[in-house]
Amino acid sequence: MKTQDLTPHPSPHPQAVRGDPASASPLDNTPRWADELSRQRLPGPFMQHPDLRGLAPATLAVHAGTRDDPVTGAVGTPIYQTSTFLLEDNQYQAIEEGYARDRFIYTRYGNPSQWAVEQKLAALEGAESALVFSSGMAAISATVLSLIDKGGHIVASNELYGGTYAFFQGELPSLGMSVSYVNPRDLAAIEAAIRPNTQILFFESLTNPLLKVADIPALVAMGKRHGVRVVIDATFTSPIAMQPLALGVDVVVHSASKYLNGHSDLIAGVACGSRKLLDSIWPRRLAYGGSLDPHACFMLERGLKTLAIRMRAHAEGALAVARWLESAKHVRRVYFAGLPSHPDHQLAQRLLKNPTGMICFELDGSDAHAVRLLDALRLGKKATSLGGVETLVSLPFNTSHAAFTGAQRERMGIQPGCVRLSVGIEDPADLIADLQQAIKVAFAD
Ligand SMILES: *Cc1c(COP(=O)(O)O)cnc(C)c1O
After folding, report:
1. With 0-12 CB in 10 A as exposed, 13-18 as middle and 19+ as buried, what is 36?
2. What are the residues whose beta carbons fall under 8 Å from the beta carbon of 99, sequence distance 6 or more?
3. Rounded to two decimals, what is the model's pTM?
4. In terms of Cα–Cα distance, which of 159, 152, 108, 98 is closest to 131?
5. Contact, 201 vs 190, CB < 8 A?
């Protein structure tokens, strides 16, 4: 195969052609387009530009980005398990002129397996461009560090994913960056926390574990008023439930280890947004090295093909389980975005096309009862993480929120006996029967 076959179509920088007398002056090697604000940026980089307009998410999940092998005709994207690529004029020119993101040179820079899954993710998010990373944290750290300068400030949710909080607290201060944490449902407090040096509003589409819904349109309007970019971690919702970019968000990040891959067998992350912003994030992927291995790209691409039907099954199962829990003995309270009893139900109805498979419930008892319940489960697996085809159950008090005291947890609304449930795609009747017998065991004396 000629490496030419894998260059993007059409060439994203047609004006930067070697030998083009207009592309550089004899005294200055800088390509002319480098400083041209009007330079046209095409979406991508993608290997092909089929017209995907009007296709539904379930169709995009199967077809977008996926590229049948041009050599053998094998259906599906081959795994381009290579670290490096043959260098030809095309690649030398890209290195020289600074558009290496658009050519295959070395897999940390880019690889056809990455481009295929990036195009699928970009199509699902309605993004011009996407970058996959070796983990959700690699996506979050590279994105945040691309959008903030030394001396910069972030306003973030005070109920962040623990890894993000650890990154903000452990890494940013030594880089001269700071973060203010605010209640994600208190818009006045969020706006009051914005300072002249604030550069990012960082929020999660649904919080862990109480599943508070971020008012993304209000955050976007606030960001516009203050000239601050909005970054949303949409791991808990997936692009099937919402497309934050369509609401005006600047960059959406995900832990692809959760719903996107969906099979609890892979660690990966993704950032999606405009080509311009993603071009500024790409050098951080290079510098910090969080590139996704081609085989992992294949796994993620395969997982994504069923995203739409999985999300439907998660939501249907979770609705059945949540409804049952609401009437179950020894259950005091249920949080599920698809139930009218959820404090943010109206916002959820406005913003979420799918209530997801995430449920949180409080037992009418202590954390010890919750531990007994987990030990008695036969189907639900005692494990942290979420979004897999198998139901996963964990307790905030000894996992995500173990660093806080009981009093601090209660102030956040996490009561004793709080259980987090990531409902899988099993038959909900089996899950309900399992929960029923486990609750019985937990409260037997
Ligand atoms: C899991 C998770 C992350 C981190 O993703 P990794 O793939 O584990 O690095 C970030 N944000 C949220 C909301 C998560 O659930």
Report:
1. exposed
2. 12, 13, 16
3. 0.92
4. 108
5. yes
Rounded CA separation 309/178 (Å): 41
Q: Give residue 307's identity as a one-letter amino acid code.
A: L
Please tell me which residue in 41, 108, 195, 323 is annotated as part of the active site. Answer: 108
Residue 41, pLDDT score: 77
The pLDDT assigned to 38 comes to: 53
Q: What is the pLDDT of residue 182?
A: 97
Could you tell me the two tokens for 298? 């294949």
State the distance from the centre of ligand 1 to the C-alpha of 255, rounded, in angstroms.
4
CA 61 to chain CA centroid, nearest Å: 15
Q: What pLDDT band is residue 40 in, cutting at 50, 70 and 90?
A: low
d(CA 181, CA 178): 10
Cβ 134 under 6 angstroms from ligand 1: no
Q: Is pLDDT of 71 > 70?
A: yes
Could you read off the pLDDT of 128-170 as tens digits, one per residue?
Answer: 999 999 999 999 999 999 999 999 999 999 999 999 999 999 9
Among 11, 126, 56, 74, which Cα is nearest to 298's? 74
Strands across the sheet containing 392-394:
331-335, 358-363, 418-422, 392-394, 381-382
> What is the per-residue pLDDT for 270?
99
Pocket lining: 271 vs ligand 1, CB cutoff 6 Å: no
Q: What's the rounded Cα separation, in Å, for the pair 322 and 333?
A: 10
Nearest CA-CA partner of 183 in 318, 343, 366, 386: 343
* Residue type (1 letter), 413: G
